[in-house]
Write a structure and sequence with these properties.
single chain, transmembrane transporter activity, cell membrane, transport, mainly alpha, globular, ABC transporter involved in vitamin B12 uptake, BtuC
């Protein structure tokens, strides 16, 4: 039995890794200008010509950003689901992404309106403050309501309030700023630069390593707070770390790509079914890889499905993610009845 599980885990990781490699090549090669695989390899070495510029300046940064931020979003969803013991908790549903979006919009409108350059670090900081603000309201509501469904409804309401404030801010923005904010608020990996990729890689890598270090305490926490405390886990510290780390990941995503829906809910659930386990040491890297696969696939569709018109990434992730959420809710309802 143990041997079968190990083989299942190995096959699942191989499939996820292969999926990332295939989708990386597809995202780089497919578009308005098609670049064959042989040319990708040659332009990768020479960096000369129009195709090389498209590859290195547009598609490769965008593809890497989709993979990194997609993985970060799925990991943030996994942390929130573990924290709340709720399978449909996620940055978008709980209003955390909307809070980050609101503060980023405020900062962008104010700074751009005063012709001040907006740096990547400042956007991440603004998004983090917004995410923490929304998370604070969610935690406050968690103390007031016992039902998890009511907690989710509270998160959705917080998201609507933040979105309403964002729309109010956009109303008083300059025309040029409105265009930028509108494109960003729909969610998109377009316009990524190597500087953006560098910053997000550092932030996500450091956060990922910290989450990996929490694997054993998380496994104990999943079995109950009393059990975890008996094993010496500091529950309060663990909860604070879960809140901060999930907020950092959510902030990084919103700062660079805008709010992206359903990835944080759907991917961890699909990964649990694929692996047949809830062990954090396996789920943490698996969720990251699964999120990368999901977002790379959705970004490819967003660029090519209605070409030359590009869809918002949230539109595509909702098409594939929303049915998963409905399936989770129906399955949970059946288990409770049974």
């Amino acid at each position: 039995m143990q041997q079968r599980r190990k083989i299942r885990y190995l096959i699942a990781f191989v499939l996820l890794t292969a999926g990332i490699l295939v989708l990386l090549l597809c995202n780089i090669g497919i578009g308005t200008v098609k670049i064959p695989l042989t040319e990708i390899l040659t332009t990768g070495r020479t960096k000369e010509g129009m195709n090389a510029r498209i590859l290195w300046e547009i598609r490769l940064p965008r593809t890497l950003a989709a993979g990194i931020l997609g993985g970060a979003l799925a990991l943030a969803g996994y942390l929130l689901q573990t924290f709340f013991h709720n399978p449909i908790a996620g940055p978008f549903v709980l209003g955390i992404s909307s809070g980050a979006k609101m503060v980023v919009a405020l900062v962008m409108v104010f700074l751009l309106g005063n012709t001040i350059r907006v740096s990547s670090g400042l956007l991440i900081l603004a998004a983090f403050l917004g995410a923490m603000l929304s998370m604070g309201f969610v935690l406050l509501m968690a103390r007031k309501v016992d039902s998890m469904s009511m907690l989710v409804v509270s998160g959705v309401m917080i998201g609507y309030i933040c979105s309403a404030i964002t729309e109010l801010v956009v109303t008083f923005a300059e025309d040029a700023d409105i265009v930028n904010l509108h494109n960003w608020s729909r969610g998109s990996f377009s316009g990524m630069t190597w500087d953006n990729v560098k910053v997000m890689s550092i932030v996500v890598a450091v956060t990922f390593l910290m989450v990996i270090l929490l694997a054993k305490p998380l496994e104990a926490y999943q079995l109950g707070e009393t059990y975890a405390q008996n094993l010496g886990v500091n529950i309060r510290t663990l909860r604070i770390l879960l809140v901060v780390l999930s907020s950092v990941l959510s902030a990084c995503i919103v700062a660079f790509a805008g709010p992206i829906s359903f990835v944080g809910i759907a991917v961890p659930q699909l990964i649990r079914k694929l692996f047949g386990t809830t062990k954090p040491l396996l789920m943490i890297p698996a969720c990251f890889l699964g999120g990368s696969v999901f977002c790379l696939f959705c970004d490819l569709l967003a660029r090519t499905w209605m070409a030359p018109t590009e869809l918002g990434i949230s539109t595509v992730t909702a098409i594939f993610g929303a049915p998963v959420v409905l399936w989770i809710m129906v399955s949970k309802s059946r288990r409770e009845r049974g």
